[in-house]
Amino acid sequence: MTRVDFLLHESAVGYAIFKVVHQQDTVGLHLKEVQKAGQDLAKFGKMVQLVNFAPWRNAADALENINLISEGILSDYLKSNLELNLPKSKKSKIVLGVADKNLAGSIKAEFPGVECETGDTSEVVADLLRGIRLHSAKLLKGLQEGDVERAQLGLGHAYSRGKVKFNVHKNDNHIIRAIATLDNLDKGINLFSQKVREWYGWHFPELFAIASDNLSYARLALYIGDKSTLSDDKLHEVAALVNDDEDKAQAIINKAKISMGRELSEVDMVNISTFAGKVVQLAEYRRTLYSYLVDKMSTVAPNLAALIGEVVAARLIQKAGSLTNLSKYPASTVQILGAEKALFRALKTKGNTPKFGLIYHSTFIGRANPKDKGRISRYLANKCSIASRIDNFAEQPSKKFGDALKQQVEDRLEFYASGKRPSKNAEVMDKAMADILADGQSLAIDTEMIDAHPPSATTPKKEKKSKDKKEKKDKKEEKKKRKHSDVNGGIEAEVDGEKKKKKKRHSTG
């Protein structure tokens, strides 16, 4: 069992460092007497001793430090307190008990002479930190009754408010909710439209063959109601419901006159009309939600939307969890995103892995030949990865890069079909950047991070060919020399061996 020397307690009032005076062993922690001693302040106060208490300077400082602790980052305020209060020992490392494992790793990396233990690695540390949290109001000096509780309440509200604000400002959350609602609406509208067809089909069964669209059928059922009231005077109104197709409208009127459907009571007709009206309202709201999604994608991920469409791009963001997560994925993950079950089933059965996931719904893969679908999906996933990274890290949204990447995929499809060489990626990106700069937008480019061109890239082709020929000649000459040296070396070795034998005979004689 490792000896714990100090404990770090992060609370809502500040940092506190305790020295462990007496600690129980791991076996003793399971005894009821030891567990009760941890709940008694008189007994627990003899186990630990307060070394230093550093309260927060203000509320903003407390929120900043708590945010850093939640991310496992060592703040300057905590670092200075540890430097001042932890002794420096050259013989052995000091063991410090910390609650958060990520913070423990940061402290260990900053202080080589400190070994950190957490509640996951040591039951003793977990029990001591639990006792400090229980009795912190009495162990910390300079506090009045109720200070810890008020500080916890205020800091908890500020921390939660900051997290909520951070999530609200991430517009990709609205995209995820919108595409999920859109999918649910599609399922509901299809189901309800089928019920309207079944219900109203008892009265006017011939309408099913004429109006195949769900929304048009629901609108016609809502407008017509009782088929006996339909006459030639309503031709223009019926035509407006079927995209101004007068022939179809006339066919509906003619079928209504000779319909074989049964008559419905007034109560039944009212319920059918009410239900058909709800379906029409859902369909209209679905259109409004789709236009909202298109507008949102044009501001959050314009390049990705321009490349593969708003719906597929929104589904990729939804599957990844956020645009940031999608931008971190490699192209190989983006390619099969949404086909995880097929992937793991193929790995389990040692079969062929899937070539595409959600990007299969893109028009590019549908237009490709069957033998080229895997190649174009890999290429499209590569461009989607580039577009998502541009959208995530760009300060000013623009779809110039998305249009350029889309044209690259179009050129690649043409290359697979006819063999026409597409333009290079560097040229396309340079042109897109020039278009953005021409529009008056700025590009934040770090010149120090730009890779320098290797010297071989600037040499002419003729010099490269001549160098290659010289290298080939030099290699051939080296091989010949090795062969001659091996032969001569063998002969010389035999001659040297005979000379040595003769010398030994002379020396023995």
Question: How would you summarize what this structure contains?
Answer:
With 509 residues, the protein is mainly alpha-helical.
Structure report:
64% of the residues lie in helices and 6% in strands. It is mostly helical and 509 residues long. The protein folds into three domains: 6-166, Nucleotidyltransferase, domain 5, CATH 3.30.420.220; 175-293, Helix Hairpins (Orthogonal Bundle); 302-445, Serum Albumin, Chain A, Domain 1 (Orthogonal Bundle), CATH 1.10.246. A hairpin with a 3-residue loop joins β1 and β2 (14-20). α15 packs across α16 (310-320). The longest helix is centred in the C-terminal third of the chain and has 48 residues, at 461-508.
Considering the chains and any ligands shown, give keywords for the structure.
single chain; 509 residues; mainly alpha; Nucleotidyltransferase, domain 5; Helix Hairpins; Serum Albumin, Chain A, Domain 1; 3 domains; five-stranded mixed β-sheet; Nop domain-containing protein
Principal-axes shape call:
extended
CATH architecture of the largest domain: 2-Layer Sandwich
- Residues in helices, as a percent range: 55-70%
Distance between the termini: 76 Å
Alpha-carbon Rg, integer: 38 Å
What is the count of β-strands?
5
Number of individual domains: 3
What order do the helices and strands follow?
Answer: EEHHEHHEHEHHHHHHHHHHHHHHHHHHH
Task: Give the helix/strand class.
Answer: mainly alpha
Strand order of the largest sheet: 3-2-1-4-5
Any idea of the CATH topology of the largest domain?
Nucleotidyltransferase, domain 5
CATH class of the largest domain: Alpha Beta
The major pleated sheet works out as: 5 strands, mixed
> Which percent band covers the strand fraction?
5-15%
| Low-confidence blocks of residues | 445-462, 486-496, 498-509
The oligomeric status of these chains comes to: single chain
Question: Treating each run of at least 4 consecutive H or I residues as one helix, how many helices?
Answer: 24
Mean pLDDT: 81
